[in-house]
Design brief:
Elements: E1 8-11, H1 17-30, E2 37-40, H2 43-53, H3 57-73, H4 81-93
Parallel strand pairs: 1-2
């Protein structure tokens, strides 16, 4: 009796790797390769949750691509002017 091969996707941690993982998912979608299981650590677990919660690898790739484009365009690490002014006001008062 032949057993079918199963594919597990393991996504590592490390902030910027998350964007690269989105590219891997895009490639898997283009090749019509659907992982049977997914595991991840840190940013990989966040990307992995998108994969696990999607109907298929195509949907997961599209979602991750949108998310990572949004992160690139409006980095959560940038402070906006109001936050900086507010922070400076707190330093001067204290």
């Amino acid at each position: 009796m032949l057993q079918s091969t199963k594919l597990g996707l393991v996504l590592s941690g490390g902030g910027a790797k998350g964007a690269y993982q989105a590219g891997v998912l895009r490639y898997l979608a283009e090749q019509d390769i659907q992982p049977d299981a997914v595991s991840g650590a840190s940013i990989g677990s966040l990307n992995g949750s998108v994969v696990a919660g999607s109907r298929n690898v195509h949907e997961a790739a599209e979602t991750l691509e949108r998310v990572w484009h949004e992160v690139a365009e409006s980095s959560p690490l940038k402070m906006d002017a109001l936050a900086r002014i507010s922070h400076e006001g707190i330093k001067e008062s204290g």
